[in-house]
Structure formats: structure tokens, C-alpha cells
Design a protein that fits this description.
The protein has a domain of 90 residues. It has two helices and two strands, in the order αββα. The longest helix has 49 residues.
């Protein structure tokens, strides 16, 4: 158990620890808590987030350019009766983009569904609270 009172961790305006009357030990001496060294908080700003995003985009861009440069061989593609020859990198990137669009569409649909459910629940609770308030009067 601590010998210091509830306010012993608080500091006054000049950053000196406050001493509660309960801080006395049996010998009559006043014991003060050790000073707390605090590092300044690191704040994450929009600018720092933008730099992180730019760095990630540049790395992915370089990787994409390397991927395209290494996969220039043409392949024959047939899709719903249409056929042609395109570089394999373009075919793979088109397939990845199509997959991303499908995932995005499903995600947007689910988020919309959840928002509608929350909106209906809030409306139901408001109506229920309104009927309880009117019945009390």
C-alpha cells in the first residue's frame, strides 16, 4: 500500500508534487514521491499521415513498374467470345482490379446494410423513449 494520499500523484502549477497530510511516516519525516520524468507526447498529424501514405504509394508504384517490366510477354486472352493478345502483366492487373471492384462492391453493400440497421434501431429507441415519456405524464 502507498503511504501517500490520493492527491500525491497530482502536481501543482509549478510541477512540484503535492504532499498530503497522510504522507508522514511513523518517524515524523515527510516523504515525497519521486519526480516523474514524462516524455512529450508524439502527436500524429495529417501531414505525417500524408507522408506515410505517399511513401507507401511510391513503394507500390516502383513494385508495379518492376512487375510490368518483367512480364511483357503477350498471352492470348479469351473472354465471353472476345479474344486477343495482351501483355501478361496487363491481364493480371486487370484481373486484380476486377477482383478489387467485386470486394469493394460487397463491402459497400455491407456497410450500407449496417448503417440502415443502426438508423432503424435508433429510430425505434427514440420512438420507445418518446412513448415512455408521454405515458409518465
Amino acid at each position: 500500500m502507498s503511504e501517500f494520499g490520493a492527491g500525491s500523484n497530482e502536481t501543482s502549477g509549478d510541477d512540484r508534487p503535492t504532499i498530503s497530510p497522510a504522507a508522514h511516516d511513523s518517524g515524523g519525516e515527510i516523504r515525497t514521491p519521486a519526480p516523474v520524468d514524462r516524455e512529450p507526447e508524439v502527436r500524429h498529424t495529417r501531414t505525417s499521415a500524408a507522408w506515410v501514405a505517399v511513401t507507401i504509394v511510391v513503394v507500390f508504384g516502383v513494385a508495379l513498374i518492376d512487375f510490368i517490366a518483367q512480364n511483357t510477354r503477350d498471352v492470348r486472352i479469351e473472354f465471353f467470345g472476345a479474344s486477343g493478345r495482351i501483355p501478361i502483366a496487363v491481364a493480371l492487373l486487370a484481373a486484380a482490379a476486377a477482383g478489387a471492384i467485386v470486394v469493394l462492391a460487397i463491402g459497400v453493400g455491407r456497410v450500407t446494410q449496417l448503417r440502415l440497421t443502426v438508423r432503424r434501431e435508433r429510430k425505434r429507441r427514440r420512438a420507445q423513449a418518446g412513448s415512455e415519456n408521454s405515458s409518465r405524464d
